[in-house]
């Protein structure tokens, strides 16, 4: 399945690094539709999509907390994606995404001035998207929030709520109120997703035991199955040939 896909990615510039995880594109050049199963990765995805049979669309996918059916990658399809970090919700989108937890929605076809021609060149899309996102950053990020999110991402979610609260000088009650209001889940739940995401790179390489972020093998297996619905071994084997691990794609 992976051999039928072409994957590229670009990391954001320093100014956007607190808000954007990456810009990436995926093209299915084959004549066959590929089935997929989505796995939570802690990102909010804004996608531009075009297929041989479906008109141009712009979609946003909220945070996922468990394995979810992401549908299909149609034959002869092209998708450009901006994967956002959590601070983008308040500082770029300027609205809550709690309502699309474990789901998504279609946006207007001229959202952020994007259009079908933007799918002609990935590098130009990246440049246009970066300029647009910078223009939407209307205010400086709250220092407590900036500290909190940097701690979360730098440690792949491997700090306790108490540690994050103390180091960011922000009460855990206020943090969880903020998380539920803007993202639709608790800080603890989000950190679990980031630990899971970090483990995927190891699983993709066949390392089916905890290297970091988990106390022991039992905890590792329990958390992986809770979020993905599968055992680490099943993920590694791409059970039913339907899992897509971006770490495997990007290593091509």
Throw out a few tags for this protein:
single chain, 252 residues, alpha+beta, six-stranded antiparallel sheet, two-stranded antiparallel sheet, 8 strands
**Helical segment count:** 9
Q: Terminal Cα separation, in Å?
A: 13 Å
How would a textbook summarize the main sheet?
Answer: 6 strands, antiparallel
Order of helices and strands: EEEEEEEHEHHHHHHHH
Shape: globular
Rg on CA atoms, Å: 18 Å
Structural class: alpha+beta
Helix fraction bin: 25-40%
* Total number of strands: 8
Q: What are the segments in which pLDDT stays under 50 over at least 5 consecutive residues?
A: 244-252
Mean pLDDT: 84
Please report which band the strand proportion falls in: under 5%, 5-15%, 15-25%, 25-35%, 35-45% or over 45%. Answer: 15-25%
Q: What is the topology, as strand order, of the major beta sheet?
A: 1-2-7-4-5-8
């Amino acid at each position: 399945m992976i051999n039928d896909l072409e994957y590229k990615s670009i990391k954001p510039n320093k100014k956007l690094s607190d808000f954007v995880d990456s810009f990436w594109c995926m093209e299915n050049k084959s004549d066959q539709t590929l089935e997929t199963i989505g796995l939570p990765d802690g990102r909010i995805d804004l996608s531009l999509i075009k297929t041989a049979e479906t008109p141009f669309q712009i979609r946003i996918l909220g945070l996922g907390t468990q394995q979810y059916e992401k549908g299909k990658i149609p034959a002869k399809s092209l998708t450009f994606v901006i994967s956002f970090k959590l601070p983008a919700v308040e500082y770029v989108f300027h609205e809550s995404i709690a309502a699309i937890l474990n789901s998504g929605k279609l946006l207007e076809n001229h959202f952020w001035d994007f259009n079908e021609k933007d799918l002609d060149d990935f590098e130009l899309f990246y440049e246009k998207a970066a300029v647009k996102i910078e223009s939407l950053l209307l205010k400086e990020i709250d220092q407590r929030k900036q500290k909190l999110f940097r701690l979360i991402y730098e440690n792949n979610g491997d700090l306790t709520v108490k540690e994050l609260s103390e180091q960011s000088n922000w009460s855990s009650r206020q943090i969880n109120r903020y998380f539920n209001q803007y993202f639709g889940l608790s800080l603890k739940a989000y950190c679990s997703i980031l630990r899971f995401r970090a483990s995927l790179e190891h699983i993709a390489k066949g390392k089916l035991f905890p290297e970091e972020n988990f106390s022991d093998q039992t905890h590792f297996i329990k958390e992986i199955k809770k979020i993905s619905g599968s055992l680490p071994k099943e993920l590694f084997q791409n059970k039913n040939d339907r899992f897509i691990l971006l770490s495997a794609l990007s290593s091509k």
